[in-house]
Amino acid sequence: MTLLQLKYVITVASSQTISKAAEELYITQPSLTASIKELENEIGITIFQRTNKGIVLTMEGEEFLSYARQIIGQFQLLEERYLGTAPVRHQFCVSTQHYSFAVEAFVALLKEYGGDTYDFRIRETQTYEIIEDVAKLKSEIGILYLNQFNETVLRKLFRNHNLHFKRLFIAKPHVFVDIHNPLAQKKAVTLEDLAPYPRLSYEQGDHNAFYFSEEILSTLESQKDIMVSDRATLFNLLIGLNGYTICSGVINEELNGKNIVSLPLLVDDYMEIGYITHKQVVLSRFAALYLDALKKFAIG
Question: Considering the entire predicted model, what is its pTM?
Answer without folding.
Answer: 0.75
